[in-house]
Fold these 2 entries.
Entry 1:
Amino acid sequence: MAQVTLNHVTKRYEDVVAVNDMNLEIRDGEFVCLVGPSGCGKSTTMEMVAGLTKPSEGNVHIGDVDVTTLPPKDRGVAMVFQNIALFPHMDVYDNISFGLRLRKFDKEEIDRRVDRASDIVQLEGMLDRMPDEMSGGQRQRVAIARAIVREPDVFLMDEPLANLDAKLRVHMRTELQRLHKELDTTIIYVTHDQAEAMTMSDRIAVLDAGELQQIDPPLVCYNEPENLFVAGFIGSPSMNFAEGELVANGFESEHFTVEFDPSQVPGASVGDRVTLGIRPEDVFTVDRVQNLSSATASIDATTDVLEPMGDEIFVYLVLGESAERSMEGETASSNQLLMSVNPDSDIQEDQDVEVVLDRSKVHLFDTASGQALAHGIEELPGPSAGTGPDAGTSAGTGAGEGTESPVTEAESDR
Ligand code: ADP
């Protein structure tokens, strides 16, 4: 087990800055996913921890040792890659034990380690199989067992599930979590798949354009994204965004307003360009939110395409008077909002609806810098929207009238 630290690590390839001034501290025994779009620097970061690439600047520590210039074999790391490079002419036992035999471990020790590793990845009884007699998932388990027998301080995994089919990938996620629990070893895991990162990690490190955007537990990245990039990247489908302005009584965009006291938004003033973010599950039709005490004013919309997913329906909404507005040549996204509703909903395409946002789930970002300003906003205090039992009248929806019911009730009432 070991802690991994990157101090001001930069990697340049001629004119490309693959990783820029990265500071990262991965705790002993932690499972951290490096996640981000293709080309954001995930693999380069991993390679610098592995010793396959040297940083242009900065240093890497594993435990108390500065490993920046050490070769991979002296770093106590074991790697598992996307391409499972098993020796085709060797059986499972020989594939798993190859590295140990190369290092001249004695037979007894090799057997002990292979038994334990094959037990952990559930390959018992398959040690004499050849790779071409195994499924993709089984071959990937051999590759993981080969890493386990090295008894490393740190596991480095670069998209190890990327070549597996969807069902197997989900299954292997659970296996990797179990493996982590069993081995209690630091794992750094590279993926571009945010769902993989959300389900497995203790913390997610979100990268974009070679820079660390946020490192936090999955739900913190989901509920309190530090900037527009993280807000848009984490969560599927993505958060809705609407550009607008901070005004004296809240947020105003072309298609809707949300009332609140702008002084509750730290670091922003009236007149600033701000972007409002709301996740699809935090948008409700008015008739479904009787218990939502934190509803915004209603927004007129027309339903466009419906996507039934089985456990929920994604409803694409067009805000305002859709047909006319689209003919005015607006950009496709500016008047769209995605809402998710329960599968039993009788919502139809091309239906006029009124929707509200859950203001406790509204995010505000500075449009220019992308930095988050607020996660959840309070109602506008004052005669039209007090904090008493009639609070919520500003929403004009009847939502929240005389009720303190928590948001979760509304959600179950979709
Ligand atoms: P990711 O793993 O997130 O897809 P990489 O770390 O592989 O991203 O790459 C980050 C950036 O560095 C990309 O722009 C990529 O083209 C560039 N890059 C990576 N390796 C090399 C290399 N050996 N030579 C030149 N550019 C590279």
Note: The pocket of adenosine-5'-diphosphate is lined by residues 13, 16, 18, 36, 38-44 (CB under 6 Å).
Entry 2:
Amino acid sequence: MKIDILSVVPQLITGFFDYSILKRAKEKGLLEINVHNLRDYTNYKHGQVDDYQFGGGAGLVLMIEPLANAIESLQKKTLYDEVIFLTPDGEVFNQQMANSLSLKNNLLLICGHYKGIDQRVRDHFITKEISIGDYVLSGGELGAAVLADAIGRLIPGVLNDETSALTDSFQDNLLAPPVYTRPETFRGWKVPDILLSGNHAKIEEWRYEKAVEITQQKRPDLG
Ligand code: ADE
């Protein structure tokens, strides 16, 4: 899979991909992530990519020309399954969306900044609009990093133990059950006996029951 990201501040996220789990995905050749600088695609002086909005109002808007130029240049090299704009008024991202996007071959993520991007870009180039939550960030970069991480870890082979993504919280609309590791007892606080029993069928049953219980307690809306 290839994820291309277009941003006015690529420095914000390039480091993240060099240290996260996605680094291993890149090294294994399972995932390619490229962050492109929008300023490399502008014909305006001094790398200008934004301007005041027509009709007045505070805040700069990313101009259509550099964005159209960048998107079309990237599209000449890659056939994208989706061109995604990160925006607080998009569809709120969740695990199901991560699952379905992880099945795609190529994604282009567009990060907005300032007051937003010229509406004509959204009308003519964007195929999907995604928000990472009901709050406003100063740009789409963190959203792009969230998407790339959530999607990237689902690509078969990226996680060491492939089944571990299947037992994540939110798969099957259940939160994950509690997990424990050594020591068996710490300050008298014991690991549940069932987990030490070696009875795998019973352990799976216990985990499922705990997942249901925790989901009902913490996120009854998921059930
Ligand atoms: N850009 C600004 N706020 C955002 C949000 N909540 N989700 C995605 N992109 C954004």
Note: Residues 86-88, 112, 131-133, 135-137, 140, 143 surround adenine (CB under 6 Å).
